[in-house]
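User: Show me a protein chain along with its predicted structure.
Assistant: Here is one chain, sequence first, then structure tokens.
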Amino acid sequence: MNTPNTSTELPPSAQPERDLAVTILDVGHGNSAVVRDGSTCAVIDAAPGDIVQRELDRVECRHIEHLIISHSDQDHAGGGPQILLDPLRTVGTAWFNPDARKNSRIWERLIRAVHTRHRRGGFGGHQMLHTETPQTLLCGRARLEVCHPSFLMAGTGPTDTSPTFGKLDTNTVSIVVRVHLEDEPAVLLAADMDAVALKHIRENGHQLSAPVLVFPHHGGLPGKADPQSFAKELTELVAPRLIIFSIRGGLRPANPHREIMAGVRLAAPDAHIACTQLSVHCHEEKQLVTDRHLAVLPAAGRKSGRACAGSVTVARIEAGLHFDPPLESHRSFVDGGSVANPLCRLPIPGPRKAADNVQPEGSG
């Protein structure tokens, strides 16, 4: 069942006090979001760098109810140790699932940070997170719904062979969270889920609909599946009004992939599409752009001159949802000549034939 379109946009002079909100942060190539009800906060993924910490400082958050790390890749987990070891904040629960295949310095640092913080105090401990987790994850009036993985998949973890699932990689088992504000779905944070994860979600009957979709894997390839078909299917299930790609400007291979964008636009031709930074598909790397259209939020692309939408806040107000920066401001930036060749404005391609479903080169 699709969420009713009750979104609204207000002029800056009439902007509400944004107490109940989700902020999708521009962290470059990575994912981080802060859910808050006043100064009560939850953090979903923590990319390396200082953007998450700066946002927590901005909203005067001194206690993090939930720290969710969707999976073990550095661009989602790299800032986790910094948050856990911050002496100025307490942490309720750190949620992440084991990954026995991950042999990286950042994953080891995350595990050790949990251990250290537990010994220091001001920490509620660590737990696995899956669709059968009995605890309801609340952040004030916000609810964090786990849509993936199931206990069986989370318990199996990344592996080359399993009796139930066969091969599972880190992206497949990444945690997908749907954030509800005042009991209404608002944002689907899809982490790095791939086509195998999407199939598993559908088989288990979990709903994904939300007005805002943070597209998985930064618009990179969804495993071995046809990227256009994957993007179209996911977008149809979510039926979003706003689709966000969290990317770093100038990064190659370039995200979002053209086939991903084609599938998104086929499924939701009227949806607003926004990248946190300018893809190399859209703009020359050396041509810097203004940041005047951005919200007053920490954003990695501001300093580099590569910001597109930057950090985006989705706030619940009485009339519905409010976006900051307003979608119209971002639309004017993209359409007003600041962006050379916006990928999100190219003609919508026709549906592919089966014979055309060839995996493109490159990776996400």
